[in-house]
Amino acid sequence: MLSIALAGKPNAGKSTFYTAATMAEVDVANYPFTTIDANRGVSHVRTECPCLERDERCNSENCRDGKRYVPIELLDVAGLVPGAHEGKGLGNQFLDELTNADVIVNVIDASGATNEKGEPVEVGEHDPLEDIDFVEEEMDMWLAGIVERNWESVERKSRSPDFDIDDALADMLSGFGASPAQIAIVLRDLEYPDDPIQWDDEHREALARDVRQRTKPIVVAANKIDVAPEENVERLLELDKPVIPTTAEGELALRRAAENGLVDYDPGDESMEIKGEVSDAQREALEGLGETMERWDGTGVQDALDYAVYDLLDHVTAYPVEDASKWSDGSGNVLPDAFLLPRGSTPVDLAYAVHSDIGDGYLHAVDARSAREVSESYELEEGDVIKIVSTN
């Protein structure tokens, strides 16, 4: 399962974002380091379900009238403060938790109501743009420190006649989630001495920055748009970075209201409708939230997760079935499963995602839409429905 980590300074709204996206109860409070131990839960990304092409909607519990929700892991860790890579705050604990994440959502306080340490200040007093670069810098310097501490092992390996720097760095950085292919791409774009002994701090920092950017891409969630000065949000959107306006509190309120039958709303909808008996105070709050959603095309929480997976990681959703004509499994369940795979994946990759035995016994695959066999080198597209034929 893909893993998305929520990063950011304390009190920016990470735990509220996490609660809204997972509906799991965690500590949320208006002081730094509310989160000490990492919270792990299941959230979802949203896409269009192929069942929209059929006369009837599928019966998957993760499909809501054609809105398909595909599970991902969401990780909420302790807040980050400047100097975290040197151990300030809960920095090392925070950074170590990011090792296995595939992509990062940097939750910032767009209202400017928390300073660089996460302490409450007046709205607009702090510049939220400062909260973007420092998170990237802390992550880059943290990884640079790991490279520095382990560089001696690379130097020792370089004395071997069959030394290959790509393999040596891949071994060193495998724990960070860097694949040999990613290391090769990074080295292709770097200028560096052939002899690792001649590398200096600048070479190692450049390596760390490029590896982090390739293995831990970041999307910014400009949170608290419901109370943020509009010019703050506009300035953030003008940056040459992916920025999604969000209100985690608004999303949490909507999900709870929907659970209680007070509103008609599914995560990722751009609007909601009040349908239950609500008090005057509730109506006023919901109508205010509706205005925020109209201004920013929703609460942004689902959009941030979707962007992280479908845009930054460039994944597609594929649906394995046993019956190509009914798009169902052996029990008649229509489109029961959905898998997220990197763009460029093949039916063989999908087979292994279903189960290693299915992959080992792979024979061929059928495109359920066309009822035609596809080659094992066929590149899966978003929404493909595939019947896998296997000996296992």
Task: Say what oligomer this is.
Answer: single chain
Work out the strand percent.
15-25%
Rounded to the nearest angstrom, the distance between the terminal CA atoms is 23 Å
How many structural domains in the coordinates? 3
Low-confidence stretches: 28-36
SS-based structural class? alpha/beta
- Radius of gyration from the alpha-carbon trace, in angstroms: 23 Å
| Name of the CATH first level of the largest domain | Alpha Beta
Query: Could you state the order of secondary-structure elements as H and E?
Result: EHEEEHEHHHHEHEHEEHHEEHHEEE
Average pLDDT score: 91
Major β-sheet annotation: 7 strands, mixed
Please give the count of helices. 12
Question: Helical residue percent?
Answer: 25-40%
CATH topology tier name of the largest domain:
Rossmann fold
* CATH H-tier superfamily of the largest domain: P-loop containing nucleotide triphosphate hydrolases
Describe the structure.
- There is one protein chain.
- The protein is α/β, with parallel strands linked by helices and 392 residues long.
- The protein has three domains: 226 residues, Rossmann fold, CATH 3.40.50.300; 76 residues, Helicase, Ruva Protein, domain 3, CATH 1.10.8; 75 residues, Ubiquitin-like (UB roll).
- The strands form three sheets. Strands 1, 2, 3, 4, 5, 6 and 7 form a seven-stranded mixed sheet that branches. A five-stranded mixed sheet has the order 11-10-14-12-13.
- The longest helix is centred in the middle third of the chain and has 28 residues.
- It is flat and about 75 Å long.
- The two termini are 23 Å apart.
- About 2% of the residues have low confidence.
